[in-house]
Input
Amino acid sequence: MQSDVAWRRLRELILDGTYPPGARLTEMEVAATLEMSRTPVREALRALTADGLVRPAGRGVVVVALEASALEDAFQVRAALEALTAELAATRQGEGRIAPADLVSLREVADATAAATAQGRLTEAVGLNRRFHRRIAELAANAIALHTLERVWDQIQVSTLRSLAPPSRPAHVSGQHEQLLAAIIEARPQDAAAVARAHVLDTRAVTHRTDEPT
Amino acid sequence: MQSDVAWRRLRELILDGTYPPGARLTEMEVAATLEMSRTPVREALRALTADGLVRPAGRGVVVVALEASALEDAFQVRAALEALTAELAATRQGEGRIAPADLVSLREVADATAAATAQGRLTEAVGLNRRFHRRIAELAANAIALHTLERVWDQIQVSTLRSLAPPSRPAHVSGQHEQLLAAIIEARPQDAAAVARAHVLDTRAVTHRTDEPT
DNA sequence: GGGCCCACCATTGCATGCAATGTATGCAAA
DNA sequence: TTTGCATACATTGCATGCAATGGTGGGCCC
Output
């Protein structure tokens, strides 16, 4: 379906910064770019509005740029939901409902994330980091939580794109990932929840600090 | 905007059971009912799909009926988010950022909910109960959490409509509301979070029990 | 020279035409 | 009687026309 294609492509372009926060999009313009008529584009823009990636602004829509307080809100929601998914994942592990291969794969992603971060490959690190967190959400086997998290991650990613900076303490971040991984593997739901929440809120603090320029 | 009107009206009709879970909706049919063309109806149906209230099913869409496991997922997400909003509300109260009138109003809603429940006015009780929880989310002043909760509440409401049964222990529910209210008023964030989570998960248990018929 | 108002036009929102497509129905054959 | 297939049709998805609307630039007045 073309409107889905339009949604996917536009989402990509927004998430990778091609359309940065504040950029204005009009139906006709996008229709010309994607070589389709206004109808599917229109639907895609509406969907992106519902996703919170763009908002109506007079004529057309603009890519959202969450202000500091809204970004804080997003991190709070993210922390609550990641605490939940981490807890659920650990619980499922305790019930023997998680395939060992999935845990191996999760560790690999964690290692790759640490490597990319340590070597300063920032864009790659961001992608791997997100994948790590998404893998955990998938292990929680809660589709609603996963779907909601995807939207929150998207919103945060857009609003922090311009401040792409390396974590101030890469080892610290990797350490938290390790702790989270351990809590899940060893089936300690309460610990997993606590670590996940603390980790997300740590990330928030770092992001806010690097948010000042511009 | 007509597509917004269509969205609102259809959402109402779904939430009040006029279109029960499983009901099939087609663009033309709805367009005729709402007396508008297919275009705004089409957009409304897409939005409702994104909201998780309907899902595409061959031709047209059908009103969703979450199966037991998905309903459980929804309750888990709801519990996590209401724990967050209760915690944030209590924290804000501790910072003196909540107007006394808002707390008075919250208590009034709690009382009205208890009264309606005790007297068996179920439909009214459901509405008041939702208002009580929404008020707390509003006190948390986190727009993203509130918005996300609205969607989850909607999904749960649709899937539990047919099993509209009085709480097995009305006094218990009212007692939990009181505890939650007290924790917020007395600015005990941790308690508020714990009570909110427990309360939601209690509600879930009740709902599941009444879920068997049909 | 600066500010305000008006007119124009880009752009959206809605309606509708048209082609593609999946579904259901009916008929025939086993 | 049941199953499989073909055909017709309901319904969607996309394109485009048309009217409404709000923003912007230019011109005029102060």
